[in-house]
């Protein structure tokens, strides 16, 4: 019960968990003398034989005309060298290809290229920033050298596409096109996303930018572009179909083109449009000076019983939150150093949210305890509306617009209108991502810290009340807590959570678990009472078929599959791993800075590039960094799989995956 006794290592109001200084043995990194970079030689022609044999299935003019009626999108991509320019298209479903090339003696078919771009729905990756401006320049008659200089301006010097077009007196044509880069989650390149979506082929650009290509090198680039980048774009599109369909419906509903926007960008566009409709004025961006400070003010309902949290609240309200040159809010030292212990759980604060610090933890519901997840419904929107928070440059009109959108979603859910409800959920939740972006009309550092800190401090208030009543909170993360409650105290738990709802004006959603198994707060699997699961991090089984798979690189999905089957069905790990026959589930993908070389057990070397895919086989070799020879961690026995295996490789080392599954369970505190 509260208050907890002060520990001997207490410093002020916080625990000092800094370990005593000790002499740490430095392990020298293993290194192999890197091979000569033959991949930079003029005679290096990766994929040339495959390129010569590749069935490009080119469109005939008749097929191209028929394709207009099929209404299938064309995936497109651009490659540019000083003496070579390529625009290639791949039709969804049929796999037919259309390539426009320009090199000495081969002029670009500009009228046909213009017709294709103006007639079809095209889908690219980073295409609004690069490919579309480049095609516009090419259609204006620019030669390969001029196009290469434009490429340098956009890619190397980070100029906007419209700025480069403006230099030549051009504007971007209004083509019917979708760019997937913002629709995809997080920030990754096309190669990484392709690996996560089980793309058939992974390959880096075969020749350094600026190379004057030979005829054979041009063919290699063409093959790389179509068989690699375009197929990766198609796979990414297929994974994102639900998100794209929702964006198309939202575009029609709001009269805005939202198809190429992230959730946060959609929120900004819709709120901006609604603000204009409500006020008759266009929203303005905030002018906030870098180096300035904002401060947090505590809402009236935020109250603690113990000295530890009372002191924390006082220090936070007195702290200066500085605004960096980037416009982001910097976390003050009081938050960086704070470690709050409530019961047996330690919490740390952050600009993004609250996190408990458990390691290797397993909890089960049993005769004496229930496991309950309590998540706050629409946490951040509830705080914004409950406290009447708004970006200063938009004024209270923001609240009118925001509340209107929230109310509209509530009504859509009641009416069973899932499309409208889902689209408005994106708008409501996505808006938060723009509060910390200085380029956004929603930018407001004060609003950002007010929302995130209130959310964290309210969860700590709930945890304190539960712990004081003898009810353990075993995990806390951003918008909820996991509670291990003695069965005889369930009424007390419900009374405490109900009072918290009354005090804060927020609602809690409850989920009952049979088990909660975690490596840490960001990597866990929770088994619900009905047998379904909730998982995060390494314990997500990413099959390469849903947007969830795009959040992380594949890392031997069969390991997670085996663990899940053992936890849920009692199937031995060995049985699952020895009998699993899906090649993609044994693969790993990693980005290796500077490129990677496979050193085979017999001493042979093979350059793989900067984005690598492999499985673990019986070979004794390793992978090294091409630039310095250091070993790439955890790649002993790794066998390259840059081409997706169609069958289980004969040299697959299944025992490696079995041992990895046992080690993964050990990180969750489970001895198998």
Structural account:
This protein is an alpha+beta fold and 672 residues long. Among the domains are: 184 residues, no CATH class; 129 residues, no CATH class. It contains 20 helices and 23 strands. Strands 13, 14, 15, 16, 17, 18 and 19 form a 7-stranded antiparallel beta sheet that branches. A hairpin with a 6-residue loop joins strand 11 and strand 12. The protein starts with 9 loop residues before the first strand and ends in a 5-residue tail after the last helix. 40% of the residues are buried. The N terminus is likely disordered.
Summarize the structure.
The chain has 672 residues and is α+β, with helices and mostly antiparallel strands.
Blueprint of the fold:
Layout (H helix, E strand, L loop, with lengths): L9 E2 L2 E2 L32 H6 L7 H10 L3 E8 L2 E8 L5 E6 L7 H10 L2 E3 L2 H13 L4 H12 L5 H7 L9 E3 L10 H7 L18 H25 L1 H14 L8 H17 L13 E2 L12 H12 L2 E2 L10 H5 L2 E3 L2 E4 L6 E2 L4 E4 L4 E8 L2 H9 L9 H18 L3 H13 L14 H24 L3 E5 L3 E7 L3 H15 L3 E13 L2 E6 L4 E4 L20 H13 L3 H7 L8 E12 L5 E12 L5 E4 L12 E3 L13 H14 L5
Helix pairs in contact: 4-5, 4-6, 7-8, 9-15, 10-14, 10-15, 13-16, 14-15, 16-17, 18-19, 18-20, 19-20
